[in-house]
């Protein structure tokens, strides 16, 4: 009997469901039915966020940096900067 049930179940496979994009307006009209006729602006209640500008480092000549960091003076600078 179990074999027959398994055999019948294997014949009828459920189709895979596809993802459907639906707007908020369409969702409300489906949920509320024909009662919902006015449009609602959902974006009106959202907060606005100010985006801060990132600080960009100036591009300098790398050779000057290497010359200033060479020797004991440069090592002292690196050591002091790390503390």
UniProtKB/TrEMBL annotation:
Keywords: Actin-binding, Muscle protein
Gene Ontology biological process: cardiac muscle contraction; skeletal muscle contraction
A GO-annotated cellular component: troponin complex
Xref: Pfam families: Troponin
InterPro entries according to UniProt: Troponin, Troponin_I, Troponin_sf
One Gene Ontology molecular-function label: actin binding
Recorded family membership: Belongs to the troponin I family.
Task of the protein: Troponin I is the inhibitory subunit of troponin, the thin filament regulatory complex which confers calcium-sensitivity to striated muscle actomyosin ATPase activity.
Protein name, per record: Troponin I4b, tandem duplicate 2
Organism: Labrus bergylta (ballan wrasse)
């Amino acid at each position: 009997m179990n074999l027959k049930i398994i055999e019948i179940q294997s014949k009828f496979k459920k189709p895979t469901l596809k993802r459907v994009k639906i707007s908020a307006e369409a969702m409300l009209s489906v949920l509320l039915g024909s009662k919902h006729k006015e449009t609602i602006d959902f974006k009106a209640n959202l907060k606005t966020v100010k985006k801060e500008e990132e600080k960009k480092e100036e591009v300098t000549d790398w050779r000057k940096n290497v010359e200033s960091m060479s020797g004991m003076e440069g090592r002292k600078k690196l050591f002091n900067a790390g503390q």
